[in-house]
Design brief:
By secondary structure, the protein is mainly alpha-helical. It is 75% helix and 0% strand. The chain has one domain.
Length: 76
């Protein structure tokens, strides 16, 4: 959950900088830095989901002999 909040904060900062964009080295460097940081956090969230969350969902559905549908999500 913290990673998602960090991603939202980074995206908000990126949006604010882009909203008031002026061509300067500081703006360009900060935009690219925030973009790289945002992509890194998104990748980290994806890795967490695929390694920790999704296998638990599949195991639960398999043990309960229920169909495994990826669009439903994990409901407990």
């Amino acid at each position: 959950r913290v990673k998602v909040i960090n991603s939202e904060i980074i995206f908000s900062l990126l949006f604010c900088i882009l909203w008031s964009f002026h061509i300067s080295a500081v703006n360009i460097v900060s935009i690219f830095s925030l973009l790289l940081l945002w992509f890194y956090v998104q990748w980290d969230i994806y890795k967490f989901y695929t390694s920790d969350f999704f296998p638990l969902y599949v195991a639960k559905q398999y043990l309960l002999d229920e169909p495994i549908v990826a669009t439903e999500g994990f409901h407990d």
